[in-house]
């Protein structure tokens, strides 16, 4: 059983964005599974690289739609994205310098991001985007 299963009420009702959110859940589940199998060290670098990649692609997409559809919460939302990007950069830097970061730190950060950003802050644009015609 996965650590976190996708549920319909996670959806922001925009398919392209939901698919990217599912990728983040998959990152969490893979890391959790590897941790239980004592193989998390192997997956740490890959996860941190995936986080950096996710930040570039996913945030650019949401921010593009927020601009395009004149979403009022754009700047506040972008500030949270910038925090994620900074965290991914920090993890990457520390891993390069010391070769080590705590797996639990990465896992907890991603889990909290799901709870506090995807399931709360992202939800705020959902009805605005769908009213603007996105599906
Ligand atoms: Fe889906 Fe605002 O990140």
How would you summarize what this structure contains?
The protein starts with 14 loop residues before the first helix and ends with a helix. The chain is mainly alpha-helical and 135 residues long. It has helices at 15-36, 40-68, 74-98, 103-121, 123-131.
Q: Can you describe what's shown?
A:
The protein is mostly helical and 135 residues long. It has one domain: Hemerythrin-like (Four Helix Bundle (Hemerythrin (Met), subunit A)). The protein is 77% helix and 0% strand. It has 5 helices and no strands. It has helices spanning 15-36, 40-68, 74-98, 103-121, 123-131. Helix 1 (15-36) packs antiparallel against helix 2 (40-68), helix 1 (15-36) packs antiparallel against helix 4 (103-121) and helix 3 (74-98) packs antiparallel against helix 4 (103-121). It is globular. It starts with 14 loop residues before the first helix and ends with a helix. The model has no long low-confidence stretch (mean pLDDT 96). It binds MU-OXO-diiron. MU-OXO-diiron binds next to helix 2, helix 3 and helix 4.
CATH-scheme architecture: Up-down Bundle
Given as residue ranges, the uncertain stretches (5+ residues, pLDDT < 50) are: none
Going by CATH, what is the homologous superfamily? Hemerythrin-like
Q: Overall mean pLDDT score?
A: 96
Q: Quick one: biggest sheet?
A: none
What is the total tally of β strands?
0
User: What compounds sit in this structure?
Assistant: MU-OXO-diiron
Structural domain tally: 1
The dominant shape is: globular
CATH class: Mainly Alpha
Radius of gyration using CA atoms only: 15 Å
Residue fraction in strands: under 5%
Assign the CATH topology. Answer: Four Helix Bundle (Hemerythrin (Met), subunit A)
Distance between the termini: 30 Å
State the share of residues found in helices, binned by percent. over 70%
Number of helices: 5
Structural class: mainly alpha
Q: What is the N-to-C order of secondary-structure elements (H for helix, E for strand)?
A: HHHHH
């Amino acid at each position: 059983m996965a650590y976190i299963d996708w549920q319909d009420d996670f959806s922001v009702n925009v398919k392209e964005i939901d698919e990217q959110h599912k990728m983040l859940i998959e990152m969490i589940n893979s890391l959790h599974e590897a941790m239980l199998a004592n193989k998390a060290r192997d997956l740490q670098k890959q996860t941190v690289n995936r986080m950096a990649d996710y930040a570039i692609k996913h945030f650019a997409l949401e921010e593009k739609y927020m601009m395009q559809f004149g979403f009022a919460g754009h700047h506040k939302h972008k500030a949270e994205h910038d925090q994620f990007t900074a965290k991914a950069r920090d993890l990457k830097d520390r891993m390069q310098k010391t070769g080590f970061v705590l797996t639990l730190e990465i896992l907890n950060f991603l889990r909290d991001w799901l709870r506090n950003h995807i399931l709360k802050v992202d939800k705020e644009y959902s009805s605005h985007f769908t009213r603007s015609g996105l599906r």
